[in-house]
Amino acid sequence: MKLKVAQTKQEVALNFSRYLAILIAAREEVHIALSGGSTPKIVFEELAANFQEDIDWKAVHLYWGDERCVDPTDDDSNYKMTVEYLISKIEIPKENIHRIKGENEPDYEAKRYAELLDDNLPKSDGGVPSFDLVILGMGDDGHTASIFPHEIDLWHSDKLCEVAVHPDSGQQRVSITGKVINHAQIVTFLVTGENKVDKVDEIINKKGDFEKYPASLVAPNSGNLIWFLDAAAAAKIT
């Protein structure tokens, strides 16, 4: 595990964007699972504004680690957010964009997307589809992707994708599972804000009930796990 701590959210976005540009330049083809949330939004803005000439998007295939079961035009859609802040501002072939279709029946879509991952991604030694990079966020409750603490068993599913349910709203979501996340070549967390400081403290320092949080189960077989944090989120790391 590596920790990269910056002072501000904007510096986190800049550091991650530089890291991503180097990663993409080193590969002929790159398969990336994106995250929703406020911090990725800042990263997408940074990439679109300042890295247009540094990244060959024709070599990049974009996927999503999770998606709300809503239409792609809905304000809750992770895909819509990515289109607004990144995809609409870069030159990437349409065939390189592989979205979770939140408008589909959830169980059907989880199966369809799992088949898409199986067909499109390179395989790990164990035959599991393997992203070059999975980008994750972390909720205040320690969830990641759309695996929440109350459904932590979904993390251990033998399936590549599962249907999860938000604990408060009851909204259904399609999410990749721990099987996919931990078979990625590289996994990065983007976590900012003082509201995340306690969970970051528990997970990084292995304190209290940290094992109850899905984010604590992120441990890629490759060993390549990087946390990009701002000073507020990292304040209690020892």
Structural features:
single chain; 238 residues; alpha/beta; Rossmann fold; six-stranded parallel beta sheet; three-stranded antiparallel beta sheet; 6 helices; 18% strand
Describe this structure in words.
By secondary structure, the protein is of the alpha/beta class. It has a single domain (2-130, 139-191, 212-226), classed as Rossmann fold (3-Layer(aba) Sandwich). The chain has helices at 9-25, 38-50, 78-85, 106-120, 178-181, 197-204, and strands at 2-6, 30-34, 60-64, 66-68, 133-136, 161-165, 172-176, 187-191, 225-230. Helix 1 (9-25) packs across helix 2. The longest helix is centred in the first third of the chain and has 17 residues, at 9-25.
Spans of at least 5 consecutive residues whose pLDDT stays below 50 are none
- What does the largest sheet look like? 6 strands, parallel
* Gross morphology: globular
CATH architecture: 3-Layer(aba) Sandwich
Q: Work out the strand percent.
A: 15-25%
What's the rounded overall pLDDT mean?
97
Termini distance?
14 Å
- Kindly report the spatial arrangement of strands forming the biggest sheet: 1-9-8-5-2-3
CATH topology: Rossmann fold
Query: What is the helix/strand order?
Result: EHEHEEHHEEEHEHE
Protein topology:
Blueprint: E1 2-6, H1 9-25, E2 30-34, H2 38-50, E3 60-64, E4 66-68, H3 78-85, H4 106-120, E5 133-136, E6 161-165, E7 172-176, H5 178-181, E8 187-191, H6 197-204, E9 225-230
Parallel strand pairs: 1-9, 2-3, 2-5, 5-8, 8-9
Antiparallel strand pairs: 4-7, 6-7
Helix pairs in contact: 1-2
